[in-house]
Design a protein that fits this description.
The chain is an alpha/beta fold. 35% of the residues lie in helices and 18% in strands. The model has no long low-confidence stretch (mean pLDDT 91).
Length: 376
């Protein structure tokens, strides 16, 4: 590309979401300006300095990577700047709309990754032993990693009838065993669910949980903020499990970005797919079933998502694959060959091949009097 690229947003998985655009941008021969959320200013500067030192150690200019810390209202200067050749934004839909509007002035191309409401669909062909031994640990990882602050984390578990009855009590006991707190504290007071980046959404989260319960959901664990004596300045939310959730509830349609698990009963495989597709989001999805279950492919083909994992969670672990969603989860891809192509300016070139020239063969432009014959 040989230009300057901008990467904005990123208040979660900071190292991954910074390193990915750094690598791809440098590989295309371009420079990069990084602007993260103002809430992650320290980690932005720290991780950018690692990349800058790596460039310097290999006799390249560390100035190829610039970290920018500013308030949101100042970011428009970056997103509308004529010197930026491409923008990657990772964040919320309302902010993305402002970024897209700003970038539309100089017609800067965009890649938008706007989070999700990722479903994990569980089918009845899962054996009881597989459910307890393999599937539930994956669900817990997908939901509660980084205290739920993961754009591609699992937010909705959709289970067909037989597996739903087995799943709910097993999952409830595991979620109740989770304890918020500082994982670096002494073992007597440490927790296994860390703090969130901010407490600003706690009133909204609490309200959404209470509204769901009022509409018929079953609150089986958590539901409230948590004060941690060993980490009094931390922003903790109790690991939460809601069962019997349906798509009409507000909590089923809003990205939570929190340690909250929602379990939906589905009457059939088709109903499970309809529930999975019932939100505007379409980032990632998972399907769990016996490997021989033919309905796996039905789910993969019909679920609306940019990425799907079969009997696992998170395609981003396969870093050679393109990452991105569709619909309310954004557009464009980063990562993989597709991501590299997305930040390159493709150019079509036409010439006679070398072997043809050696044989004296070359393309001839028709004489001017031939054009009339060609057109008629």
């Amino acid at each position: 590309m040989g230009a300057i690229r901008g990467a904005c947003g990123m208040c979660e998985l900071e190292f991954h979401n910074l390193l990915s655009p750094i690598i791809s941008t440098i590989f295309t021969g371009s420079a990069l300006v990084l602007k993260s959320s103002e809430q992650t200013a320290f980690s932005l500067s720290y991780f950018a300095s690692i990349a800058q030192h790596a460039l310097h150690s290999n006799s390249h200019s560390s100035q190829l990577i610039q970290a920018l810390v500013c308030w949101p209202q100042t970011a428009a200067y970056l997103t509308s700047h004529l010197g930026i050749s491409h923008l990657l934004f990772i964040g919320s839909r309302p902010v993305a709309q402002a970024v897209a509007l700003s970038a539309s002035r100089p017609l800067t191309p965009l890649c938008l990754e706007l989070g999700g409401k990722d479903p994990a669909i569980l089918l009845d062909s899962i054996s009881p032993s597989t459910l307890e031994r393999a599937v539930i640990p994956i669900l817990l990882k997908g939901i509660f990693t980084s205290s739920g602050q993961n754009c591609i984390g699992i937010e909705r578990i959709i289970a067909t009838p037989r597996v739903y009855r087995r799943l709910v009590p097993l999952l409830a006991s595991r979620v109740r065993a989770l304890h918020p707190g500082d994982p670096l504290a002494p073992s007597s007071s440490s927790g296994n669910i860390g703090a969130m980046i901010s407490a600003s959404r706690f009133p909204t989260l609490t309200s959404l949980v209470q509204s769901a319960v009022s509409s018929g959901a079953e609150l089986l664990a958590g539901g409230l903020p948590y004060f941690c004596p060993s980490s009094p300045k931390g922003h903790y939310f109790t690991p939460t499990l809601l069962a019997n959730v349906n798509s009409s509830m507000a909590i089923a349609n809003e990205e939570l970005f929190a340690p909250i698990a929602l379990v939906f009963p589905a009457s059939s495989v088709q109903h499970a797919i309809e529930l999975a597709n019932s939100t505007p989001y379409a980032l990632g999805a998972s399907v769990f079933a016996a490997p021989s279950d033919p309905d796996i492919q039905k789910v993969v083909h019909e679920v609306r998502a940019g990425m799907v994992s079969i009997n696992d969670f998170g395609t981003y672990y396969a870093t050679g694959l393109p990452f991105g969603g569709r619909g309310g989860s954004g557009y464009g891809r980063f990562g993989g060959e597709e991501g590299l192509r997305g930040i390159c300016n493709l150019k079509a070139v036409c010439k006679d091949s070398d072997w043809a020239r050696r044989l004296g063969i070359r393309t001839k432009i028709p004489a001017s009097d031939c054009y009339f014959l060609l057109l008629n």
